[in-house]
Each structure stands twice: as C-alpha cells, then as structure tokens.
Amino acid sequence: MNFIIRWIVTAIAVAAAVWLVPGVEVINNGSSWVGIVFFALILSLINMSIKPILQVLSLPVTVLTLGIFYLIVNTLLLYIAAWLANGLFGAGFYIASFGSAFVASIVISIVSALVNSLVGNEA
C-alpha cells in the first residue's frame, strides 16, 4: 500500500513539473496522463532502488557542497527515468536541457514533500 501511495504522489509531482517547467514534456500518441503514470512508476522504482546507493556514494561531495549536490543526484535520476520510460514503454517523456531537468527535479521534490505531508506518508 505504501508503494501505491508513493506512486500516486510521484505522479502528481511529475504532472506539476510537466505543467510548470518549460522543456519538460510528455509526447504521447494517446493521453499525456498515461505517459505521466508510466514515468512516475519508473521514477518511483528508481527512487526506491538506486537512489539510496547514489546518496551513500555521493555523501562526501554532498557534505562539501552543503547538500546542493543532492539536487544533481535527483536530476541524474530524472534523466535515467526518462531514458527508461522512453525505451521500455515508449512514454515519450522529453527533457530539453540540463537546466529544465534541474528545475523539474526541484519542483518534483517540493511537490512530493507537500503532497506527502498532506497524505501523511513518510517518504
């Protein structure tokens, strides 16, 4: 049940990023919500599996940069999720530039934190 809630929260955050950030788009033949749902699924799975490993590996650099490097890790995971979503599902999640991905990762983090606080889910 916790994964389903995390998936829904991530889908809401990704939808907000697609809506707010120029350069982040869902290009799909069908509904754009289908692409957002598949992308949120992949991003949730990556956040649960790969993100803790990358956080531990990048801990020294994150401490030296006072936590700013953590945003770079989130941006990298966003790129990985977009690559997998396009390859596996053909979701057509398009990121125009590193700046767009960086701002989208910030938006996704903020919206996820807000929605998780409303839902009462610890993520």
UniProtKB/TrEMBL annotation:
One Pfam family here: Phage_holin_4_2
Record keywords, A-Z: Membrane, Transmembrane, Transmembrane helix
Segments passing through the bilayer: 33-50, 62-85, 91-115
Keyword Transcription: no
Coiled-coil annotated spans: none
Protein name, entry field: Phage holin family protein
